[in-house]
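Render this sequence as a predicted structure.
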Amino acid sequence: MDLFAGGAAADRRRDEAGADAASLEELRRRRRLHLRRRQLSQRVCARCGEGFSLLFNRRLECADCALGVCRHCAEWNPQRDVWRCCACKEER
């Protein structure tokens, strides 16, 4: 009986270690995705995909998610004196 109980505990530890490794890999995947999205938002709007220019479609940074958005996809918040993208505005 003791061998069986030890085997079950070892299986449980192995399952927990596997779950930890899977969750760690998921966190790494999400981090890579977030970094890629931030890099892409340097050139195009993170919400609509429109490219930025110096004169007509300037890049604005959302105060909440820190992604680059265009003026059409952002809204000025005069109380906080910041720009906020439409997605973050709807969350609040």
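Summary. Confidence is low (pLDDT under 50) at residues 1-5. Residues 2-40 form the longest helix (39 residues).
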